[in-house]
Amino acid sequence: MDKKTTTKSDVWSGRFSEPVDELVQRYTASVTFDKRMAAFDIQGSLAHAEMLCAQKILTEQDLSDIQRGLAQILEEINDGRFNWSIGLEDVHMNIERRLTDLIGDAGKRLHTGRSRNDQVATDIRLYLRSAIDAIDGLLKNLCNSLADLAEKHYDTILPGFTHMQVAQPVTFGHHLLAYAEMFCRDIERMRDCRKRVNRLPLGAAALAGTTFPIDRERVARALGFEDVCRNSLDAVSDRDFAIEFCAAAALVMTHISRLSEELVIWMSPRIGFIDIADRFCTGSSIMPQKKNPDVPELARGKTGRVNGHLIGLLTLMKGQPLAYNKDNQEDKEPLFDTIDTVSDTLRIFADMVSAITVKPDMMRQAALQGYATATDLADYLVKKGLPFRAAHEAVARAVRFCVEHNCDLSDMTLEQMRAFSPLIESDVLGALTLEASVSARAHIGGTAPERVKEAIAYLRKRLET
Ligand code: ARG
């Protein structure tokens, strides 16, 4: 912040007998964080001014002065030459004051029929809409990275877990595609949220609307909004759209966090299913042998912070009477931090997933332990005519035998197996391999390698939209 501009504000001078206290000025100012909406503030002002001119509220000359002035201001901001002043409180007043300095009275006319209350709501919506569109692309990139890795490992077998216990063998491609499903739902959720973000508050003015003959639909069209907010009181006070976005973002981070947890486990030398490229890991300052999965751990941690922002915004709104209250200024930092955290995380994860080294031998070894094909043996018996519950019991006894004799189901001789059910014949051996187990699950949504290939193709098609 420029030194000479942090002096006491004169913005409200006519109504006030003394300048705002210096600490209060800093306490109430938002320019340090809301200046990131500057380009959208200018875009909104241009649409507002064009409408005022079309409605004969501003002259052509006023409009062209405003257009020229705002273009220069945008350039100054982009070049880092703009002098932001805390004394001018927020992004809106900073830009308006500079405009007036540049073009005189036309700058003072820009705020006709408008209030900062509908202006800020418009800016946030424009900013968030653009962030959602970027996040849409980032989610797609991550899904494509998952699909690329799944393609390479459509038939690589690892144990699937329930309760963190070996359950049944699955293909690694199938496992990765489970996350792609989550992120596809995130894309849907973001797009649905976007519809409610994409409505125009401008025209609500302070809260009750304006006495000028404005054309809100024209402004909405100019700014690409799908509709106008239908009630002026609601328009300036509604932040549901920001809360919805944070809820959708919290789910994105929840999915990221679950994936992170698996990456951390898989990379542990005790498991050793994968390795993460060095550029996503760090070492230890004391233990020379360490290579830590810092990125997934940090992403897991940052999930808490995004969840916190969601709760923060809900709490911000819960006690507010209509219409605008200054509380609302507190919506921005949580919202911006959520956008930044989710965007950075998605960007890093798309790269990191592409740089995962898979260790199929370790996965296979793990899948061969823990009687992962016990269900296949039960299914085999059912196909020979045994009711499922009876089959379940026969295999449970066989597993117990294996535990006592420290061997695997596939290590038993045919004779030993037949002790548990005379229905077992020599064709059982082919049914109990890991490959047979995964290939047999060949319905839609199943783990069979052929199905995984189809699921990848289907996913890619969805990602084109
Ligand atoms: N900086 C304010 C905000 O973020 C802009 C609106 C101020 N309106 C007001 N009546 N004080 O909400």
Give a verbal description of the structure.
Mean pLDDT is 96; it is low at 1-7. The two termini are 44 Å apart. Helix 3 (38-54) packs antiparallel against helix 4 (60-78), helix 3 (38-54) packs across helix 7 and helix 8 (172-197) runs parallel beside helix 20. The strands form three sheets. The chain has a two-stranded antiparallel ribbon with strand order 1-2. With 465 residues, it is mainly alpha-helical. It has three domains: 8-112, Fumarase/aspartase (N-terminal domain) (Fumarase C, Chain B, domain 1), CATH 1.10.275.10; 117-365, Fumarase/aspartase (Central domain) (Fumarase C, Chain A, domain 2, Up-down Bundle), CATH 1.20.200; 374-432, Ribonucleotide Reductase Protein R1, domain 1, CATH 1.10.40. It is elongated and about 100 Å long. 61% of the residues lie in helices and 5% in strands. Bound molecules: arginine (ARG). The site of arginine has 10 residues, from helix 7.
Count of helices? 20
CATH arch. level architecture of the largest domain: Up-down Bundle
Average pLDDT number = 96
Strand order of the largest sheet: 1-2
How many beta strands in the DSSP annotation?
A: 6
Measured distance between first and last alpha carbons: 44 Å
Please give the CATH class of the largest domain: Mainly Alpha
Which residue ranges are poorly predicted, with pLDDT under 50 across at least 5 consecutive positions? 1-7
Q: How many structural domains can be distinguished in the coordinates? A: 3
* Quaternary structure annotation: single chain
Determine the CATH superfamily of the largest domain.
Answer: Fumarase/aspartase (Central domain)
As a percent range, the share of helical residues equals 55-70%
- Amount of beta strand: under 5%
Bound compounds, each kind once, are: arginine
What general outline do the C-alpha atoms trace?
elongated
Radius of gyration: 31 Å
Structural classification: mainly alpha
